[in-house]
């Protein structure tokens, strides 16, 4: 029994030492900022007009490629990290990287630096030099396009995170 008493005493001493330590203070710092108010084309429409002479047999995802002309304006500081450009719209039923148009076999694919930018994409940007975007009509593989007007709509949004 005496042996167990010594073991208990040693354990209590060890536990007592483990509980003794130094405390240190913690400080937290930061800077709150007001995010800049940004707009695309001053809130107006970004219009990409492919013209009235697209050949139904020439839509191949290469022909008729057009620049998407837009500009981003921000009030206040524009050199801020954390700015993103979000592209959204109805996804084509035959090409997940294209917007659906009013013609079921025709879509519009958006490119950023020669890479498809699928609807739902979000990319980091510098608002003072936004990425160049291009749009090109694409068709459902094997489909025969009909003559007629078409349109598609999408949304470009700039966010600060």
**Name given to the CATH homologous superfamily of the domain at 56-142 and 152-160:** Fimbrial-type adhesion domain
What's the rounded overall pLDDT mean? 87
- Total of helices: 1
Radius of gyration: 30 Å
Q: Characterize the overall form.
A: elongated
What would you call the structural class? mainly beta
Keywords: Signal
Pfam families: Fimbrial
Signal peptide: 1-23
Organism: Serratia liquefaciens
Can you put this structure into words, describing what you see?
It holds the Pfam family Fimbrial. Residues 1-23 form the signal peptide. This is Pilus assembly protein. One of its GO terms (cellular component) is pilus. One of its GO terms (biological process) is cell adhesion involved in single-species biofilm formation. With 161 residues, the protein is mostly beta strands. It has a domain at 56-142 and 152-160: Fimbrial-type adhesion domain (Immunoglobulin-like). It has one helix and ten strands. The protein has one helix spanning 2-19; strands spanning 37-40, 66-68, 72-75, 83-89, 98-100, 106-112, 115-116, 121-124, 133-139, 154-160. Strands 2, 5, 6, 7 and 9 form a five-stranded antiparallel β-sheet that branches. A hairpin with a 2-residue loop joins strand 6 (106-112) and strand 7. The longest helix has 18 residues, at 2-19. The chain is elongated, with a radius of gyration of 30 Å. The N and C termini lie far apart (67 Å).
What would you say about this model in short?
This protein is mainly beta and 161 residues long. Helices cover 11% and strands 30% of the residues. Strands 2, 5, 6, 7 and 9 form a five-stranded antiparallel β-sheet that branches. Strands 8-4-10 form a three-stranded antiparallel β-sheet, with no helix packed on it. A two-stranded antiparallel sheet has the order 1-3.
């Amino acid at each position: 029994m005496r042996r167990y008493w010594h073991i208990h005493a040693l354990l209590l001493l060890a536990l007592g030492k483990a509980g003794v330590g130094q405390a240190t203070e913690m400080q937290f710092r930061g800077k709150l900022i007001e995010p800049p108010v940004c707009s695309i084309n001053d809130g107006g429409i970004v219009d990409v007009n492919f013209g009235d002479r697209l050949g139904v047999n020439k839509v191949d995802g290469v022909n008729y490629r057009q620049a998407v002309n837009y500009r981003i304006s921000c009030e206040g500081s524009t050199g801020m990290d954390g700015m993103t450009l979000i592209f959204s719209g109805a996804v084509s039923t035959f090409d997940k990287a294209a917007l659906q148009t009013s013609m079921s076999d025709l879509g519009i694919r958006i490119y950023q630096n020669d890479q498809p930018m699928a609807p739902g994409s979000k990319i980091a940007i510098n608002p003072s030099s936004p990425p160049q975007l291009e749009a090109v009509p694409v068709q459902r593989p094997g489909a025969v396009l009909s003559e007629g007007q078409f349109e598609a709509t999408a949304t470009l949004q700039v966010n600060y995170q």
